[in-house]
Structure formats: C-alpha cells, structure tokens
Structure to design on (139 residues):
C-alpha cells in the first residue's frame, strides 16, 4: 500500500508540508480516503494550505504505510519564494525535477503571462531552457 499514493514535499524535508499540485494515486487509495475523511475538519477557505498542504503532511506522519513522500526537488523546485530564479535566473537545469510547479497564482502577472512559444524559444532563462525541448517544431 506504500506506493499507492505519492506526494512531494514542499520545501526541504517537507518543512511546509506536502504540496497537492502533483498527486499520483492508485485506484481506491487508502490515503485518499483518509484525506477526504479528515478534509472537513481542516478546511478553512482563508487558509488553503491547511487542508491542501498541512493536512496531508500530518496524515503522512500518522499513516506512513499509505503514502510515499518524495523529496522537494522532485516536483516542487524552485519554491514559490524563488520565482525570480525560475523565470529570470540562469545556469540551473533542474536536474532532479520530474515535474515543475509553476506557482501560477503568484507568477502569472510578472512571468507566466509573457509565456508564448516565441518567448520560450528566444528568451534565455532557467524555465525557458528547461521547457523549450517540449515545444513542437512549428507553432
């Protein structure tokens, strides 16, 4: 059952919790049932991270056999506090990432709104360099 649900740590050693932007689950995962079962206790519309990041972390500590936690750099590097590094920095290839959280709610106006195929092809920064290879040849 350990590998039936996978989440990534948000921050080094999960200091902020387990981020819900990337989830992998087998059908009928026990961890999903636990999370849903406790969701209403933790839900606060003013503190979204409580039910979305902190609760799964707490449940992961209480029921470790039902969850696999992967380190922060697998899905969530760079963090929301390093958007300049992601979208304007240079010389990082994100070698440990298998997914990348874009932190859209924080990055949209300054960075994501500028993203077009042409911008990604022609502007040199960490993000564009990492995703450029996924663009189709003709767009």
């Amino acid at each position: 059952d350990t590998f039936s649900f996978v989440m990534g740590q948000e921050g080094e050693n999960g200091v902020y919790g387990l981020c819900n932007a990337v989830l992998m689950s087998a059908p009928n995962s026990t961890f999903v049932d636990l999370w849903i079962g406790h969701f209403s206790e933790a839900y606060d519309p003013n503190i979204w991270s409580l039910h979305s990041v902190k609760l799964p972390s707490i449940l992961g500590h209480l029921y470790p056999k039902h969850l696999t936690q992967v380190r922060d750099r697998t899905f969530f590097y760079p963090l929301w506090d390093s958007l300049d590094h992601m979208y304007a920095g240079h010389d990082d290839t994100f070698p440990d990432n298998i997914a990348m959280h874009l932190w859209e709610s924080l990055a949209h106006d300054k960075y994501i709104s500028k993203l077009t195929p042409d911008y990604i092809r022609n502007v040199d920064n960490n993000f564009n360099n990492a995703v450029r290879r996924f663009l189709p040849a003709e767009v």
About this structure: The first strand starts at residue 5 and ends at 10.
